[in-house]
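Hi everyone,

Forwarding the result from last night's run.
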Amino acid sequence: MKKKVLLDTDIGGDIDDALCLAYLLSQPLCELVGITTIGGEVEKRAMIADAICKADGMSIPIAAGADYTLMPSSLYPTPDGAKHLANWHHEKSFVKNKAVDFMRQKIRENPHEISLLAVGHLTNIALLFLADPEIPKLLKELYIMNGVFSKELEKTMEMPISNWNSWVDPQAAAVGCSCSYYLWS
């Protein structure tokens, strides 16, 4: 049986998220039910995800997400990979702030079947859990790539490097991690 996966990503900067998407697309036991984007210039991030899907011959629903963090920040990461979009076929009609409604719909249509994989900061996830507190209970699984939580490591490494996804939006990380408690209760 295929695992239904919903990917929330800040694709377009470092190569890790693109590799994650390529891996998911190549897995015969993975049914990628959708992709949402987070971070600065979320529409361009959605275009990058779509270009990768199209290059693999796949048509996956994609929704651009939040273009901000929960608390105002001067930090605004941009997808450097977007400069190569002219070389790849992709959709161009993405609109930001659509991810929460998209994720909510997919999860409610497939209760206890969706594995939510968040490989960017957790702003979309926090907004989803705050908008619909029942969602964590409707997920099959939640996987987050949200850094390292260790005071010792923080003393030896620069914070953004050791803990980027939680550092860039700590309020979202707190909401996402605390709401996910329902997965285990």
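The first strand starts at residue 3 and ends at 9.

Cheers,
N.
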